[in-house]
Amino acid sequence: MVSNPLPAVARRIAQKRWVMRTAPIVMRLERFVRRVSRGRRGVLDLAGLPSIELTVAGRKTGIPRTTSLLYVPRGDDLLLVGSNWGSPKHPVWSANLRAADTAIVRRKGDRFEVTVSEVTGMDRKRAWDLAVEFWPGYEMECELSGGRTFRIFELRRS
């Protein structure tokens, strides 16, 4: 059996600073792939990496907002890291998630509700270490952000 080499290649490429400048292109491509696959696949899926579509109510408007994200598997749970491509600002989805108790996840065509909790304290250090082991680019993104402490969330299937 031949294993997929793409995840390892993607992890190596994601550690290059120039990749952060491709964010607008990747995000447009992500929306296109999601649209043509009816939400079942995204760019990360094509690269052999785990991705979801997260839908959470806007904290101010209550209007559902959907974002495609890389997730870090942790047992049956999913970890999300608010790296925002190394921007000094937190991603909007993380502020919405911080204000929510639940959200909707779509993963490979499966749609389900999750409970949301922000990971803090000693648990945050363990979650960060796991996230960096899974996706080494987070360390470089943290540097690019000026050392911003990324928000980390645990999503647990309801």
Automatic annotation (TrEMBL):
Gene3D superfamilies: Electron Transport, Fmn-binding Protein, Chain A. It catalyses: oxidized coenzyme F420-(gamma-L-Glu)(n) + a quinol + H(+) = reduced coenzyme F420-(gamma-L-Glu)(n) + a quinone. It holds the Pfam family F420H2_quin_red. Transmembrane segments: none annotated. Belongs to the F420H(2)-dependent quinone reductase family. This is Nitroreductase family deazaflavin-dependent oxidoreductase. It comes from Nocardia vinacea.
